Amino acid sequence: MFDDIDLRILEILQEKARIPNAEVARQVGMAPSAVLERIRKLEQQGVIQGYEVRINPAHFGQGLIAFVQLQVTGGADVGAQLTDIPGAQEVFQTSGDCNYLVKLRVTSLPELGRCLREDFAALEAVTQVSARIVLDVLKETRKISLDQ
Q: Which of 25, 46, 55, 85 could form a disulfide with 35 if both were Cys (CB 3.0 to 4.6 A apart)?
């Protein structure tokens, strides 16, 4: 599916997405035009889904992270509603004790309380809401392992 050069290009881009194409080419030992062609192909195949800027949330007063667990009635699908909640960074449908897990970033404990009451518990299908407050972030990344 991917050769060693594709994997190396992906590793480089995961480390620094804004790296100049010529520098990627130098690191993999190819011509810049060939590297650009490979990157475009990876984008077209949906392997590279986009490029994002990582903003420090503390600069915007959004230093509080909570993981919100929700149980919903029957087969209710509230996923789309959860993705619209301000501060919801990631929304997962899960198995086990809860049906959904949401990574939420807010400004304060009062804001978290308001969000739990007004945004989550107010959804018609939601039967139970619980939250786990993050005390310290030890690792946070969107990088994936390319070793497989």
A: 25
